[in-house]
Specification:
The protein is α+β, with helices and mostly antiparallel strands. The chain folds into four domains: 21-199 and 226-257, Orthogonal Prism (Agglutinin, subunit A), CATH 2.90.10.10; 293-430, no CATH class; 479-566, Phosphorylase Kinase, domain 1, CATH 3.30.200; 574-788, Transferase(Phosphotransferase) domain 1 (Transferase(Phosphotransferase), domain 1), CATH 1.10.510.10. The longest helix has 37 residues, at 431-467. It binds 2-acetamido-2-deoxy-beta-D-glucopyranose (4 copies). One 2-acetamido-2-deoxy-beta-D-glucopyranose is lined by residues 381, 383, 403.
């Protein structure tokens, strides 16, 4: 009773805070105004919001800016102020603007934790959040962008926003660069940075510490020379390089498009665009796109070709510097000219086409010359090793000259450029030589043609054979080679194993492109999982929703059957909620997000997907968490599709997991969308209480978790259910609402349970909820024992399936 009094007091206290601190609706903080935790400012058109936030998996508080419009789906933070100095207590922390013109964050002891600086003093400083996501400090009456005292676009964290200039001002010597987060839970500067390096001709570099990890090449007037794919059509791209500054930026053509460039904590550059239909960020490209984007993988004069094995080769007319090392796959020493250069002899420039231009660290440029002029200038100085056109946007214009070895070249068959490399004159191709070459080419082409015909024949046969499996046709799912998966999982090594599902082990793997995957491998010996395997391929491949786990492909080769999923670094929900220490990482807002996410995923299955699917095995261990702790429903091995207007069906094969199965399903084998709703209800109560339904123990009674919750609810003591770590936060009405929704979902009669549509509504609205009736199976132990002895359901085979699915 004491605890509930305390909580009621807390509730009253919270609501009083709520009344006295309404969320700020303006886009600026005026002089001496204080912004406290819980208050925010919003840009004038409502695109961005600034306030306190905690990254997922952390309870530290930071000041940050995020997209306001997509906040119902995901909190995407684009900038962090006090990234190195988080606050743990924000009870009296404030953000304030003061004279002469600074914005500062003060902790609860009134100490400045973070502050902007200014070189001048103004009468009436304000901080304003612009609709571009730029936070600026300026004089209240000044509207000239040049007059900002300070702006966040000059101090970005990991995100390059439209309108932000990434680069260097040569006058002020101020450099604007991206700096990755340490990890998803910690915005402190990590290992990676991304800048426009002005040494030589400027180029975009990703660095790990001080060493270059990836390079996209110099700007060629249209794009960066090593751009993997066409530029996104959303935007105009700008690269400005003059005496005063060098910068790269992009601007939106249609301002309602959301797109950003992010440097991830593992050093990847990602271009993301928001897709309104799916309510998630789509990765337009990821750099490094493949192994060939690893900086200097093939050494000097080596050329990386991702379609070749091995990927590294020497440029034509070049040979490995150390043949033995090279053949062993150690390419770091690179290649040298077959005929060494002698500065006293005559040279020619040989053209190499369709490549990503080499590192421009040791380069010089001229913006006006023609290509012929470039050749003449380069030929005059023996240390000039190569030249190319500087700007290909409108014919060839200007020159880029390289001095010293050429490093970090890759083949780009479609988007590469030409470079002219200094060679001994004996390497010039003679007329006669080229004739012989032509004949050779003819002969080679003929044999190639024959080979291709043969290959297509083999492929045809192979495909026919595969058709028998009837899986690819059903699903249009990418098929992975066994060798690819073996390599990715380190030959299914024990250290890569991340779990043991009902039908076999699950491994973590990394594809050559760097993508992390989870591989579910069907036990070779058992035939048991085959139906479930097929089931999963058929259903999940057709489903796409941000709260469903994504299947990337499958692999069937000989005895091996595997499913390849996106990798979920945070494992499954049960590893959090049922773990004393890890459950502390989930604060209430996160838990509530998870409940809502699962609800939306299930609603999609029941109502919005083309198939109308009943999952039949929803439980905490089948909800996976991505890096941002977004829940994703997984394991469709038992799912069933029902016709569009049908709500359910009957089966003799009762499969599922104890503790989550509804009474009508266990006893009569009737499954419907409402049996999923039941499982959802159990899950909600488990999340709120951080206790398992099955195996729940209470000293006062013999009830399971549902019974316990029901008892408390009837006695108006629901708050006692709430797990301590969650109770810290001021969200008690949301918690009580979730408990009641959970109870409504587990009601005895299926017709009394709400549909997932109503559940989603009930969770998000403030409307009055109906009173819950008695739950089904609140003394599960007894009823279930009865059911087990009844002959309708439990043939011994089914029991095996049931136990298999319940990995305790
Ligand atoms: C915080 O410090 C400032 C100046 O140091 C002072 O003017 C102000 O009164 C202090 N506020 C509190 C609440 O102590
Ligand atoms: C402001 O601080 C940054 C570092 O935080 C520094 O690079 C810059 O020179 C400072 N500017 C002024 C005007 O003091
Ligand atoms: C901008 O994009 C929005 C949403 O994609 C679209 O509805 C609108 O028509 C577009 N406006 C223009 C001018 O293309
Ligand atoms: C060749 O160019 C390099 C780099 O610009 C320069 O240091 C060197 O003096 C030049 N040599 C001659 C002979 O002009």
């Amino acid at each position: 009773m004491k605890a509930s009094f305390f909580l009621l007091f807390l509730l009253a206290f919270c609501s009083s805070i709520h009344k006295t601190l309404p969320t700020t609706k303006t886009d600026l903080i005026s002089t001496n105004q204080l912004i406290k935790d819980g208050e925010t400012i919003v840009s004038s058109r409502g695109t961005f919001e600034l306030g306190f936030f905690s990254p997922s998996g952390s309870s530290n508080r930071y000041i940050g800016i995020w997209y306001k419009q997509i906040l119902p789906y995901v909190q995407t933070v684009v900038w962090v102020a006090n990234r190195e100095k988080p606050l743990t207590n924000t009870s009296s922390a404030v953000l304030k603007v003061s004279k002469p013109g600074t914005l500062a964050l003060l902790n609860d002891k009134n100490e400045t934790i973070w502050s902007t600086n200014t070189s001048r003093s103004v009468q009436n400083p304000v901080a304003m959040l612009l609709d571009t996501g730029n936070l600026v400090v300026k004089d209240a009456k000044d509207d000239y962008p040049e007059d900002f005292l300070w702006q966040s676009f000059h101090f970005p964290t990991d995100t390059h926003m439209p309108g932000m200039k990434l680069g260097k001002n040569f006058k002020t010597r101020h450099e604007v660069y991206l700096s990755a987060w340490k990890n998803n839970n910690d915005p402190a500067p990590g290992e990676f940075t991304r800048n426009i390096d002005p040494t030589g001709y400027p180029q975009a570099l990703t660095k790990r510490g001080t060493s270059v990890s990836a390079r996209i090449g110099p700007w060629n007037g249209l794009r960066f020379s090593g751009s993997p794919i066409p530029l996104l059509e959303c935007c105009h791209f700008h690269f400005i390089f003059n005496k005063e500054e060098v910068y790269y930026s992009f601007s939106l053509i249609n301002s309602s498009v959301l797109t950003r460039l992010v440097l991830t904590s593992n050093g990847d550059i990602q271009r993301l665009t928001w897709v309104d239909r799916t309510k998630r960020w789509n990765i337009y490209y990821n750099l490094p796109a493949d192994n060939c984007d690893t900086y200097s993988l093939c050494g000097a004069y080596g050329s990386c070709d991702i379609d070749n094995t091995p990927t590294c080769g020497c440029l034509e007319k070049f040979i490995a510097k150390h043949t033995q090392q090279w053949e062993k796959g150690d390419w770091s020493e690179g290649c040298v000219r077959r005929t060494p250069l002698d500065c006293n002899k005559e040279h020619v420039f040989r053209k190499y086409s369709r490549i990503k231009l080499p590192d421009t660290k040791h380069s010089q440029y001229d913006k006006t010359m023609t290509l012929e002029g470039c050749r003449q200038v380069c030929s005059r100085n023996c240390s000039c090793t190569a030249y190319s056109s500087l700007d290909v946007s409108n014919g060839d214009k200007g020159c880029l000259f390289w001095f010293g070895e050429l490093i970090d070249i890759r083949k780009l068959p479609e988007r590469g450029q030409d470079i002219y490399i200094r060679m001994d004159s004996s390497e010039q191709e003679s007329e006669a030589g080229s004739k012989i070459k032509k004949e050779k080419i003819l002969a080679v082409s003929f044999s190639l043609l024959m080979a291709m015909i043969l290959l297509s024949l083999i492929m045809l046969l192979y495909k026919r054979k595969r058709k028998k499996l009837k899986l690819k046709e059903d699903s249009e799912l990418p098929v992975f080679q066994l060798s690819t998966i073996t390599r990715a999982t380190n030959n299914f090594s024990e250290s890569n194993k991340i779990g043991e599902g009902g039908f076999g082990p699950v491994y973590k793997g990394v594809l050559e492109e760097g993508q992390e995957i989870a591989v579910k491998r069907l036990s070779r010996t058992s035939m048991q999982g085959l139906d479930e395997y097929k089931n999963e391929v058929i259903y999940i491949a057709k489903l796409q929703h941000r709260n469903l786990v994504r299947l990337l492909g499958c692999c069937i080769q000989g005895e091996e059957k595997m499913l390849i999923y996106e990798y979920m670094p945070n494992k499954s929900l049960n590893s959090y909620i049922f773990d004393k220490t890890k459950s502390k990482l989930l604060d209430w807002p996160k838990s509530f997000d998870i409940i809502n996410g699962i609800a939306r995923g299930l609603l999609y299955l029941h109502q919005d997907s083309r198939l109308r699917i009943i999952h039949r095995d929803l439980k905490a261990s089948n909800v996976l968490l991505d890096t941002d702790m977004n829940p994703k429903i997984s394991d469709f091995g038992l799912a069933r599709s029902v016709a569009g207007n049908e709500m359910g069906a009957k089966t003799r094969n009762v499969v599922g997991t104890h503790g989550y199965m509804s009474p009508e399903y266990v006893i009569d084998g009737i499954f419907s969308v409402k049996s999923d709703v039941f499982s959802f209800g159990v899950l909600v109560l488990e999340i709120v209480s951080c206790k398992r339904n099955r195996g729940f123990f209470h000293q006062d009674h013999n009830l399971n978790l549902l019974g316990h919750v029901w008892k408390l609810y009837k006695e108006d003591r629901s708050l006692e259910l709430i797990d301590e770590p969650l109770a810290d936060s001021c969200h008690i009405s949301q918690m009580l609402r979730s408990i009641q929704v959970g109870l409504l979902c587990v009601q005895q009669r299926p017709d009394d349970r709400p549909s997932m549509f109503s559940v989603v509504q009930m969770l998000t609205n403030e409307s009055l909820l109906p009173k819950a009736k008695e739950p089904g199976f609140f003394t599960e132990r007894n009823i279930f024992d009865e059911a087990k002895s009844g002959s309708q359901t439990a043939s011994s085979k089914n029991e095996v399936t049931i136990t298999l699915l319940d990995p305790r």
